[in-house]
């Protein structure tokens, strides 16, 4: 999709704050600092619309981005950040679970993993949880620019094996600075949102 108009419409914690327009929604989940905001920025052709930072755990709310008055991207705060307190983690868990299990407009979840490493226990748990709730999921292996091209197949196989996938159809190697994988991610999103 050619994106010209994007607007952060809501930073929500509570379902009462979710947008009421009814556009399809695509959520972005993944470990803190994995690159969710960076991926979102590449998809919408902005350098730094969604806030990115080298400091993990920055995004604390569900951020709804209106994309072209056609769909919402929902930037979900990252999991697995050790330095947040137990009560904060529980609050986070409840907020995410409520959104992911109760949102009718949610059409698909883009689940990010770090291409350089095997998926973490948290990544695997998140994937299994999404599968359990039958949420269409795309695995995006980001920061792929940080490993040699020759290691890409191995990274994809590792993800397939760790997540227990039947095939590699829904795994995409991505790089934010090089914009690799952008079209493939967009194709999947458009299929889920409008297909
Ligand atoms: P939280 O909002 O804290 O959960 O983090 P996030 O998942 O939104 O990560 P963010 O997009 O803020 O990126 C974290 C750091 O990783 C930043 O320093 C980015 O510049 C860097 N980064 C993200 N994607 C890539 C990528 O594809 N390649 C490289 N080399 N760096 C990346
Ligand atoms: Mg972020």
TrEMBL record:
The family line of this record is:
Belongs to the TRAFAC class TrmE-Era-EngA-EngB-Septin-like GTPase superfamily. EngB GTPase family.
Q: Which domain of life is it from?
A: Bacteria
Protein name (record): Probable GTP-binding protein EngB
What is its cofactor? Mg(2+)
One term under GO cellular component: cytosol
User: InterPro entries of this UniProt entry?
Assistant: G_ENGB_dom (IPR030393), GTP-bd (IPR006073), GTP-bd_ribosome_bio_YsxC (IPR019987), P-loop_NTPase (IPR027417), Small_GTP-bd (IPR005225)
Q: Which HAMAP family match?
A: GTPase_EngB (MF_00321)
What CDD domains has UniProt attached to this entry? YihA_EngB
- The answer to whether keyword GTP-binding applies is yes
Task: Give the EngB-type G domain ranges.
Answer: 22-195
Per the record, the GO terms for biological process are: division septum assembly
Q: Which Pfam families match?
A: MMR_HSR1
Function, as annotated, reads: Necessary for normal cell division and for the maintenance of normal septation.
Q: What keyword terms does UniProt attach to this protein?
A: Cell cycle, Cell division, GTP-binding, Magnesium, Metal-binding, Nucleotide-binding, Septation
* Xref: PANTHER family: ENGB-TYPE G DOMAIN-CONTAINING PROTEIN, MSS1/TRME-RELATED GTP-BINDING PROTEIN
The terms under GO molecular function for this entry are: GTP binding; metal ion binding
């Amino acid at each position: 999709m050619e994106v010209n108009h994007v607007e952060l419409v809501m930073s929500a914690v509570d379902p009462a704050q979710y947008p009421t327009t009814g556009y399809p929604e695509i959520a972005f989940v993944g470990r803190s600092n994995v690159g969710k905001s960076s991926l979102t920025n590449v998809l919408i052709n902005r350098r730094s619309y969604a806030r990115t930072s080298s400091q993990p755990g920055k995004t604390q709310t569900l951020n709804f981005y209106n994309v072209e008055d056609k769909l919402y991207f929902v930037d979900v705060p990252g999991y697995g950040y050790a330095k947040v307190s137990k009560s904060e983690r529980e609050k986070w868990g409840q907020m995410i679970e409520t959104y992911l299990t109760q949102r009718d407009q949610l059409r698909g979840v883009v689940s990010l993993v770090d291409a350089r490493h095997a998926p973490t226990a948290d990544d695997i748990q998140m994937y299994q949880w999404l599968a359990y709730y039958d949420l269409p999921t795309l695995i995006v292996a980001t920061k792929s620019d940080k490993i040699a091209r020759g290691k890409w197949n191995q990274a994809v196989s590792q993800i397939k094996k760790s997540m227990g996938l039947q095939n590699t159809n829904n795994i995409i190697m991505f790089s934010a600075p090089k914009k690799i994988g952008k079209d493939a991610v967009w194709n999947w999103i458009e299929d889920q949102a409008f297909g």
